[in-house]
Amino acid sequence: MLKRTQRLNEIDDSLIGKTVIINGWVDRMRNLGGIVFLWIRDRYGLVQVVFDPQKPVYEYVKNLSNEYVVAVKGIVRERPKEAKNPNLESGNVEILAEELEILAESKTPPIYTNREEGNEEARLKYRYLDLRRSALQHNLIFRHRVAHLTREYMNSKDFLEIETPYLTKSTPEGARDFLVPSRLKKGSFYALPQSPQIFKQLLMISGFDRYYQIVRCFRDEDLRADRQPEFTQLDLEMSFADQSDVLEIVNGLVKKLYEKFIGIDLGEIPIMSYSEAMEKFGSDKPDLRFEMELQDLTNETFAHEMKFLTPSKGEALKSIRILRSETFSRKVLDSYANSAKSEGLRFGWVKNSNGDLSGSIAKIFKSAGVNLDLKNGEMMITCAGKRSSVNKFLGSVRLDAAKRLNLVDESSVKALWVVDFPMFEWNEEEKRYQAQHHPFTMPYVEDLDKYSSDPSKMRAHSYDLVINGWEMGSGSVRIHTKKLQEKIFKLIGISEKEAKARFGFFLEAFEYGAPPHAGFAMGFDRLIATMLGLSSLRDVIAFPKTTSGTDLMSDTPSKVSETQLEELGIKSEVDE
After folding, report:
1. Domain boundaries, the chain
2. CB 496 within 8 A of CB 186
3. Are 359 and 350 in contact (CB under 8 A)?
4. Topology adopted by domain 8-104
5. CA distance readout (Å), 520 to 19, 156, 199, 226
6. Share of the chain above pLDDT 90, in %
7. Average pLDDT, stretch 65-82?
């Protein structure tokens, strides 16, 4: 084998006149009047190789095709002036081939490997070929570099990288677990971890003070472009720390990553309460790259003079102002109205057309003599009903309007901390309260008694990092006493018996001196995608699943043999 002397990114002007050996894949071929130009590709770059018909090696080039793996020996020479390519690292030079060795042949690929075209399903089925594309290789190399700098940063802050188990105990909160049957204890199951939550808290109880891990997590939930059944997160935990300590560490890391790799200074990352975020933006992960805040009209004097808009007790009347109404057709507005109606909300709109108010509720405002102060071409969308539903609905309208009006500056980055989330939320299906974050989150202790009759009003010492409208990660101050942890379990309907069965070892650990601690977990796949401006996590994961949780390449999930099932004590569908 002709063993390479240079990687392709090392072929440059400094090697002119020297003999080199390169290895790589045939990216494309061109035959120009007998002279054959071959583009050779490896992970590092792309180089043009010239085959002269007068040289013996020319006979072998006829056998080549795209994606053949080859070794080429030749002399580096300067390209003609008109043939130089300033967009390529090796664009000033080319290699005049003297020897050629075919290291591996290739069938005609079922997908393109040197362009963006192709069916996505085919690309996932032949992912090992799709990964030859420069765009995907760039994404995964970028991911590696971000992970490397992340580890450097965490190590510099005295965090220890410690691995936690993948075969764990099933937990009662969050998404469904992936279960793994035990062969040695038939009828018993491990669960793949949705996060290392309990283990990292146990590490704090063990005295390790500062832990982190770039770790795989697993959740059996419905999928979409920004969600995968197995994903990676940056997980961290700190002893003798509160919310401000965690935010300081995470701020330092995120700012360092964006400055190093994107060239953006995030500046001071603002903090906003959950209630303020919902009231102003209708979302707990608001996109701050544009304004368009929700306006609360509930207490305006005119609100109670208009039957259609009058909010009942406990309801809200809110609006959002649209600057250019011409973008919103009647079809769009009707779709908004139908969505609002399906949520039990009262919807209306009014716009200023050359000084005249028109729209579904224009008459109401005219009869009430209300001056909306709408400029020509502006529009106001209103919604009345249950406050939380109104906020959520107008929040979705805000995002849709921003897209239609092209208000989002895709080159900008806006980060935000949202804090003080509700401790509990109502689970209508199970008719009980459940922890909104997870049951190990520290509540505002003063709220436990104050809102004992309405747990939905209790606040949690929890916090989310939001970047450009995406939730990057969540964290919280943790409960560190057995008494309080048992009280929270009781509030979410976990009996003492169930708590002991599921968390007995954890509760017992609290009896041996647990330090105050807090932590955070950031979606690493999502962070990389956001930094690169990508909408799909599949573009930053080497071997992703489809939205149905399937790996098309390896045909997973798949059936297993009867023998394997028998060893695990599981009856097959055929037996049943």
Report:
1. 8-104, 290-408
2. no
3. yes
4. OB fold (Dihydrolipoamide Acetyltransferase, E2P) (2.40.50)
5. 54, 18, 13, 20
6. 78
7. 96
Tally of CB atoms within 10 A around 508? 11
Question: Which CATH code is given to the segment(s) 290-408?
Answer: 3.30.1360.30
Q: Yes or no: say if 436 and 424 are a contact pair by the CB < 8 Å rule.
A: yes
Question: Which tokens sit at 513?
Answer: 């001196």
Tens-digit pLDDT profile for residues 204-262: 999 999 999 999 999 998 777 678 999 999 999 999 999 999 999 999 999 999 999 99
Nearest to 212 by CA among 260, 258, 265, 249: 249
0.85 cut: is pTM over it? yes
Query: Of 354, 359, 358, which Cα lies nearest the Cα of 337?
Result: 359
Average pLDDT over every residue of 55-79: 95
Percentage of the chain with pLDDT > 70? 96
Cis amide leading into 557 (omega within 30):
yes
Are the C-beta atoms of residues 19 and 75 closer than 8 Å to each other?
Answer: yes
DSSP 291: -
Distance CA 385, CA 405 (A): 27
Q: Are 18 and 76 in contact (CB under 8 A)?
A: yes
CA end-to-end distance (rounded Å), the chain:
57
CA gap 524, 539 in Å, rounded: 13
For residue 214 the two structure tokens come to 């770039």
- Label the pairing between strands 210-218 and 160-161: parallel
CB contact at 8 A, 298 and 287: no
Q: What is the pLDDT of residues 294-348, one digit of tens each?
A: 999 887 645 555 555 666 777 888 999 998 999 999 999 999 999 999 999 999 9
Q: Which two tokens stand for residue 369?
A: 């003599």
- Cβ(349)–Cβ(379) below 8 Å: yes
The amino acid that residue 456 corresponds to is S
Query: Tokens standing for 46?
Result: 């792309």
Q: Does residue 180 register a pLDDT over 90? A: yes
Sheet of 315-322: strand order equals 295-296, 315-322, 379-386, 346-353, 356-358
Q: Phi and psi (nearest 5°) for 319?
A: -140, 165
